[in-house]
Write a structure and sequence with these properties.
The chain has a domain of 48 residues. With 94 residues, the chain is mostly helical. Helix content is 69%, strand content 0%.
């Protein structure tokens, strides 16, 4: 009988924290109320090959101009905010 009480106490000690976690995980609102299903939306159209090639070309141009601006900032030994402002103005000019 003594071991049975120990087992029940141990079970209660383990069950209380789990019950608290379960209570925290419940959604707000009415108990048992189901959330409405999300509205079906049309799938996004796939980008055409021409659009994707243009995006790649634009990305390469940006990285090339960014690299050029960074090199100019290095040549001028700019650091910190001065470097940041220089690179921003350099990119805006291109």
């Amino acid at each position: 009988m003594n071991t049975m009480k120990k087992h029940l106490i141990l079970l209660a000690c383990l069950a209380l924290p789990l019950a608290a976690l379960a209570a925290d995980a419940k959604p707000q609102g009415k108990a048992g109320a189901k959330k409405p299903a999300p509205a079906a939306s049309a799938p996004a159209p796939a980008a055409s090959a021409i659009d994707s090639r243009a995006a790649v070309r634009e990305s390469k141009q940006r990285s090339t101009s960014m690299g050029a601006c960074q090199r100019q900032a290095n040549d001028q030994n700019l650091i910190g905010d001065a470097r940041h402002q220089f690179v921003l103005s350099c990119l805006a000019a291109k």
